Amino acid sequence: MSNLLARDGPSTVQPPLSQTVGYIVVVLIGAIIALGMMLVTKVLKKTAGEDNKKTEMFMTANRTIRTGLTASAVISSWLWSTALLGSSFVGYDYGIAGPFWFAAGCSPMIVFFALLGISCKRKIPEAHTSLEVVRIRYGHVAHIVFMILCLVNNIFACANMLLGAAAVITAVTGMHIIAATFLLPVGVTVYTFVGGIKATFLTDYFHTAIIMIIACYFSVKAFSTPQIGSVGELFELLQAAATRHPVSGNQSGTYLTMTSKSAILFGILHTLGNFGLVIMDTSYFIKAFSASPAAVVPGYTIGGIAYFAIPWALGTVMSSVALGLENQPNFPTFPRRMTSTEVSNGLVLPYAAQTIAGKGGAAAVLLITFMACTSTLSAQVIAVSSILSFDVYREYFKKKATDRDLIRASHFGVIFFAAFSAGFSTMLHYVGINLGWTLYMLGVVTCPGIFPMIFTILWRRQSKAAAILSPILGLATGLSVWLGTASHFSGEVTVASTGQVLPCLYGTVASCMSPIIYSVVITLVKPQNYDWNDFKKVKLSLEKLDSNLTTAHLNKNGRVDGGEEEDAGRAGFDQKELKRWARIAAIWSVATFLGHWVIWPLPMYGSGYVFGKKFFIAWVVVAIIWLWLSMLVAIFYPIFDGGIQQMRDVYRGLRGQKVDGARGDASPSDGSISDATRTGEIQENKPGLND
């Protein structure tokens, strides 16, 4: 084929699907999922005693989530529409190095969070949010500072997801972008309003299963189309694409190399930005608090490693398809290349899917975009809801808040934030900001609190002044560097100049790293020597915690379910056991970072190696195998790890049979999702707050 036209001008691609299809997916399927989760919530209350009118159940699922469901929820938490769309567009821009660095910028952070999660379990087992940890240690000023940082993190994270998802839905169906932006959170609001964190876990599982199945389908379909036929043929197509339009900054201008200056700069930017998104996102802490102690470390570790394959494999395959076939008549933009705006809006994935699978491929992308966006939105909504209920309402308005008060505040938070995030995303759209801009600049606003938060949990010496001042100074430093470098490189400060890689990279590095210096220097003036046991002196949980750090309920006789003998015989999680899990988490954190960020990619970058045909085939095959294994983990692990047992109990309960919740045949230390909650009759505990 002849050379393609330049990447300029407006998009003239006609949506392959009708607006009706868009509304069916966004509205009807969203409503079906919401109604289904409302039914599941009602059934679990009737058969398993999981009462979402109880704050501990609504916000922490009684701290009993098993490893399998935790791992699935962790995978889902990072299956942003950004991950599916962004990994493909960086592959289109930078070559095979792009999707790899996208994946490497996520997995090490997820695994590292296992260390923070188990540390919180050990030091402050009754916590609901990370902000409670800050408040107890440093007081109200620090509490407000970190609350603002966390809310900013959640706001920009939601905007990032909604901008990308709405743009794809509009491109695929012709649905108005503002309608998509406002309708996407509706179903999320309904099922989160009713079911709380447990509904989030269950919908995470359902959404993740569908996304993984479709991603695996694309990994096979790409090589069954006559235009490609095999991985080897895709290699030839990529070589031809590099001849037509070589990549600036890549070794020999090829897409087939890890030696890509732009890609590694994006990798640094993306890694730091995601570090901020994890540490400063209270939804990750909520899921860690909701998991049983035995499930935190393996759940986050398995989930983080499994997640790696999704942006790597899907991004590699679909961006290569787009690059290889964009000079074919059935590519949506033919006879021109995709415009920069189309790429930044995340349209590489839907265009590639449409090329290899027609309208069915477009429909599949529409479905996974909807699933990814709503699944991660639910986590963000419940996170902000927890902040507004526990950290604002309970702390500053009604210290003696009851279950009913906190649930009401949580419901308000769910509705408020869903509406606010849609409105904020709409504002960004109208000032010309898209998925690419938010993807690059996120780290500037999410990173300042990373190390002060880590020091709060892991370093007893950090002082109160350091905790308060270092993130504020870090944010000011990052914003100054970001805007200053944008002006330096472009001569002006505009949306376009501030969305370039280098200004965002410098601003993110400044936001992330400068608080370390500020915190250490300020701490040296007057270091703290905090006693971790002080955390446990504050009553946070509205209900008693059992010996294994899960929520215990009282039966109608006023005793803990299972009786005193069973309670005394349970294998509680003592400090020695929790420290062992912390060591395991630290080892896995270091190993994952070294493997995904140092040992694997950096020698390939430094050597200037250009992939040969056999190496490229092996690269793609390993990525696809990893992707399929991740699908098996996400779908089947939760079923065998407690899912079958709970489904059996639900079936018995629906038939009117006795559920053996008191027999104690499953030690709660195994992370059982139902053992601590299956009760015949639950009596409300009176909250004993001592804040």
Automatic annotation (TrEMBL):
Alphabetical UniProt keywords: Membrane, Transmembrane, Transmembrane helix, Transport
Primary location group? membrane
Give TM segment ranges. 20-44, 64-80, 100-120, 141-169, 175-194, 201-220, 263-286, 293-314, 364-390, 411-431, 437-459, 466-485, 505-525, 584-603, 615-640
Write out the biased-composition intervals (Polar residues).
669-682
Query: Record's superkingdom?
Result: Eukaryota
Q: Where in the cell is it found?
A: Membrane
A GO cellular component annotation here is: plasma membrane
Give the start-end ranges of region Disordered. 660-691
Which Pfam family, just one, is annotated for this protein? Answer: SSF
Example GO molecular function: urea transmembrane transporter activity
Record's PROSITE patterns? NA_SOLUT_SYMP_3
Gene3D superfamilies recorded: Sodium/glucose cotransporter
Bilayer topology:
Multi-pass membrane protein
**Which PANTHER family does this chain map to?**
ACTIVE TRANSPORTER, PUTATIVE (AFU_ORTHOLOGUE AFUA_1G17570)-RELATED, PTHR46154
The entry's family comment says:
Belongs to the sodium:solute symporter (SSF) (TC 2.A.21) family.
Protein name per Swiss-Prot or TrEMBL: Uncharacterized protein
